[in-house]
Specification:
about 475 residues, flat, alpha+beta, single chain, about 35% strand
């Protein structure tokens, strides 16, 4: 069968496509991938420790600023520890940054091969030396010499080699670490999730006891009450985040403890952990020659540390500071009905879906004593204001005479119900005094003081929550 012009054209197009495809494949596999491989090889060749696998490191020794620090890696648990010149936890972030930079360290250029005079590069007695040893015993040794003033690079050599290379000067900052730099400076090395209880003796000799139950803090002494989670967590964070400015001794004797007056501390905190272990921290301030210095120790450890003075103020709390002063605690999404008792009389709102349109979201509707359309945004604002309302103080814990607070016949009261009609709580507001209003949760005996300005978040009359229908005859 003779080939038609159409068939010849189609074959020509297919041939051209094959050639173009072959050219594209060649460009990708023959050129692009080759370039990528060459680039990767070049980057690897530039790295001083291209074969260093930081996940397999067992030990790192750092000599800098006249100190030699030895660190060991543990996998159970996963952490770094100092083993010389002191046994303690390492600063995880600092040692990991050092190891990362060591693995990324690149050579800018070869300065001199088999240098006969290392002294001129500061490499005969290097000021910085890092020895990284892997689990299988392989060692990676970095020696850092003087800085090249021309471009701020540093002279380095590997192992015992006399080959001198130039490296970025920024790497020096990552590896030039002292024992203090590398050690964990936390006085109480513990995670917040591990703390189950806290006992605190404040600078004013108050003894406070708190415990955590179902993720919430409870005050046990000197009075039993709900804890203010935000305030207690702030206190816990101040203790957990306390870090040494310096360690005055790592082998504190009884004489040392007395010298820094920590045998009679100004404040003490006892942390009970979920494991049952305890950490006891003590603080003291000493003033000499008009200079005040704060010292701290953990009784389970042997160090004494100088710490920031601010910790004493952080610990100078009162039980009232740690009490939950929320008037009422509830889930706003579960509130289905609210009754307001005001001077003009009571009225009720309910959260309902509009009739005949199941697709619409629930809206607030005034249901009693007469029906009306509620301002949805305003009602949501009221619930938010009520849920976030906290007292500034507690007027009385076990109030027997509510009349003196105007709470025997409150000026305003709000009662919340869930979707099943169960009461979630009632908050009543009494008389005003200066810039305060007395209030109480009717399920409790204590009377709160609330800022008068917060009362503007609640309605004073039904009209504050009701949508007013436009008069059909009124001009638009």
């Amino acid at each position: 069968m003779a080939m038609t012009q159409k068939m010849r054209s189609l074959l020509s197009l297919l041939a051209l496509a094959a050639v173009a495809g072959g050219a594209g494949l060649y460009a990708y596999y023959g050129v692009h991938l080759k370039q990528e491989a060459e680039k990767a090889k070049k980057e690897k060749d530039e790295k001083l420790f291209a074969d260093l696998d930081k996940t397999k490191l067992a030990q790192v020794t750092v000599t800098a600023k006249g100190e030699t620090t030895v660190l060991a890696h543990s996998k159970t648990p996963e952490q770094w520890n100092l083993i010389s010149p002191v046994n303690t936890l390492a600063d995880k972030g600092t040692i990991e940054a050092l190891v990362d930079r060591l693995g990324q360290m690149k050579s800018k250029s070869v300065v001199e091969e088999k240098a006969a005079d290392l002294k001129k590069y500061g490499l005969d007695k290097p000021a910085i030396k890092v020895v990284a040893k892997t689990e299988d015993g392989k060692e990676f040794v970095l020696r850092c010499g003087e800085e090249n003033s021309f471009d701020s690079s540093i002279y380095v050599a590997l192992g015992d080699s006399h080959d001198v290379v130039s490296a970025e000067g920024s790497f020096k900052n990552a590896v030039e670490r002292t024992t203090f730099d590398l050690r964990d400076k936390r006085v109480a090395p513990v995670e917040e999730s591990e703390i189950a209880a806290l006992e605190l003796t404040t600078p004013d000799s108050l003894h406070i006891q708190l415990t955590k139950q179902d993720g919430k803090w409870k005050l046990l002494a000197p009075i039993a009450d709900r804890g203010d989670d935000q305030a207690v967590n702030k206190l816990v964070s101040a203790i957990r985040n306390l870090r040494a400015i310096k360690f005055v001794t790592d082998t504190a004797s009884a004489d040392d403890v007395a010298r820094y007056q920590l045998d009679k501390p100004r404040a003490e905190a006892v942390l009970t952990l979920t494991s049952g272990a305890r950490m006891t921290l003590t603080w003291q301030q000493i003033t000499q020659d008009s200079k005040t210095t704060t010292y701290a120790r953990r009784k389970e450890a042997t160090f004494i540390a100088e710490v920031p003075d601010a910790i004493v103020a952080d610990l100078n709390v009162k039980p009232g500071d740690l009490r939950d002063k929320s008037l009422i605690t509830f889930d706003k999404d579960k509130v289905a009905k609210v009754t307001f008792a005001l001077a003009e009389g009571p009225f009720t709102l309910e959260r309902k879906k509009p009739e005949g349109d199941a697709g619409k979201s629930e809206d607030w509707t005034i249901t009693a004593p007469t029906p009306g359309v509620a301002k949805k945004w305003k009602m949501n604002s009221v619930l938010w204001g009520l849920s976030s309302m906290k007292a500034t103080g507690i007027a009385e814990d076990n109030a027997a005479d509510l009349a003196k607070y105007g709470l025997d016949k409150p000026a305003k009261a709000v009662t919340l119900f869930d979707g099943e009609g169960k009461e979630l709580g009632t908050v009543a507001f009494g008389k005003e005094e200066a810039d305060k209003v007395y209030a109480r949760n009717t399920a409790e005996t204590r009377v709160f003081q609330v800022e008068k300005s917060r009362m503007g978040e609640l309605p004073s009359a039904r009209a504050d929550l009701e949508e007013v229908k436009a008069d059909a005859g009124a001009p638009k």
